[in-house]
Amino acid sequence: MxxxxxxxxxxxEELLPLFNELKGSLKIFEKITSxxxxxxxxxxxxxxxSFSESIELKDVSFSYEDQKIxxxxxxxxxxxxxYLLKGASGAGKSTLMKLLSQTYYEYEGAITxxxxxxxxxxxxxxxxxxxxxxxxxxxxxxxMLNNLTLxxxxxxxxxxxxVVEAGLADFLYDHPDKLNRVLRENGQDLSGGQRQRVAxxxxxxxxxxxxxxxxxxxxxxxxxxxQVESTLLGLPCTLIAVSHRYYPGVTEKYDGVIExxxxxxxxxxxxxxxxxxxxVS
Length: 281
Ligand code: ADP
Known about the structure:
It contains nine helices and ten strands. It is α/β, with parallel strands linked by helices. Helix 5 crosses helix 7 (192-205) and helix 7 (192-205) runs parallel beside helix 8 (222-233). It is globular and about 85 Å long. Residues 31-40 have low confidence and may be disordered. Bound molecules: adenosine-5'-diphosphate. Adenosine-5'-diphosphate binds at residues 64, 67, 69, 87, 89-95.
């Protein structure tokens, strides 16, 4: 009897946690299936990007569910100028970059490139004109050339020019295989600075109009960070960059600071922003 009772009671005890797990899973299932009804399907844009003057935000508001990130914001960014994006952690810097780069469409107000509504621009064409540089650069075990061109058939001269402009020339041309040098898995044989320069060269071979850079130099030592940021500031395109570092003699080369605070945006000329000592850190 005791053995039989043991055989019945223990499995019952094991069932209790499983029951809780099932209850939790049901909640997750309900959440996933209910989201489906709320998804607004965005109609794909078909127009080509034309960007020769400015990007404008007109009365833009954006929230994540009930968390307001931007509230009736107006902003005008000029072509080929370099902007530093500032604000406390969680203020909405990454969100603003995502709004400007067609990641989110569910905002109120209008975002225009020249006079064209961003929502009307084809995603494929838009992506051909922008580049993103993050702290982590994805590199694969293949030649430097393929890592730069991402297997597109690009003009060799253009690739070489990008390599030089990104500051990779010495590193590449000192090696006998040059652009055919094979990188180790995820670029383990490159320094942090070289990895970021590969990301910059990728942007340059694409001939992009806009570079979005999110903490591209924060994992580098101050000297390398300053060099990479300086390279970014010399690119012939519009730059919108989040950077917490202040590099004396380099940071001043930005044209303006976009500051996000309490859902509002202020645009400062660089000299005004850094004239207040508190903003230099
Ligand atoms: P920052 O880049 O200035 O640190 P973010 O734009 O990343 O700020 O985030 C702004 C706020 O929005 C934060 O409170 C963050 O937790 C929240 N947030 C960011 N992304 C999402 C998301 N996909 N869903 C819900 N909330 C988000």
